[in-house]
Amino acid sequence: MRGHGFLLANYVPGNSVIHRTPLAVKFLLVVGCGLVSFLVVDWLVSAAVLAALGALFLLTGAGAQRLVSAVRPVALVLVVIGLFQWWQLGAPTAARIVLNILVCVVAASLLTATTPMQRILDGVVSLATPFRRLGADPERFALTIAIMLRSIPYIAGAFADVRDSARARGLERNPRALVLPVFITTVAFARQTGEALAARGLGDAED
Questions:
Q1: Which of 56, 57, 72, 154 stands the most exposed, by the fewest C-beta atoms within 10 Å?
Q2: Taking the model in full, what pTM does it have?
Q3: How many Å apart are CA 179 and CA 48, to the nearest integer?
Q4: TM spans, by residue (predicted)?
């Protein structure tokens, strides 16, 4: 199984201002960009926010290619969304929607490119700790996110491998040749993950 990234840029060690920014501020940046995507109604504002985030990303030293790689997986989806919204609501609305999605992706990539994943998960545990009195388990919540982040690239890689195999056999237009192998691989991966968690006593809730 070859490796595949998915949406967000991987961590790049560095000593930039963004690297040294407290994790809470980065979290607020991502949340703020998510709110902006709902509140902004002018595509020019969305474009300005996206340009600012892009400049911040380049200041981290991660490089433009890494940012392009983070955005590339959603490019086709954005084209489809943009064309549909253009047809339904016009070009300005289509541009605003597409740009706002890119704002969220770039903001999240700015977080993951400048913060080690373990530190992000530790931050998630800290944020969820106040909910422990309501029965929440912050550690399990962070573990769930970690598994999700590991699983998505694996499934994306499985689909890419199956697609290449089907294309080599002239079956790229056969849905069964694409869906069934990915489904079987995904189920097997889920079972292996579940068995690994159970072996470490993490599969069942504590009494």
A1: 72
A2: 0.69
A3: 40
A4: 27-58, 70-87, 93-113
Q: Is the predicted pLDDT of residue 170 greater than 70, yes or no?
A: yes
Where in the chain are the domains? Answer: 1-115, 117-207
In angstroms, the CA 182 to CA 25 distance is: 39
DSSP state of 129: G
pLDDT tens digits, 183-201: 777 777 667 766 666 665 5
107: Cβ contacts below 8 Å, ≥ 6 apart:
29, 30, 33, 34, 53
CA atoms within 13 A on the CB side of 164: 7
Residue 32 tokens read as 């703020």
Buried b (16+ CB within 10 A) or exposed e, 131-152: eeeeeeebeebbbeeeeeeeee
Q: How far apart are CA 124 and CA 134, in angstroms?
A: 16
CA within 13 Å, CB half, 70: 25
DSSP code, position 74:
G
Take residue 109 and report the two structure tokens written for it: 């990539």
Q: Which of 103, 97, 107, 96 is nearest to 44 (CA)?
A: 96
* Band (33; pLDDT cuts 50, 70, 90): confident
Q: Can you give the length of the chain in residues?
A: 207
Q: What is the SS3 string spanning 1-61? A: CCCCCCCCCCCCCCCCHHHHCCHHHHHHHHHHHHHHHHHCCCHHHHHHHHHHHHHHHHHCC
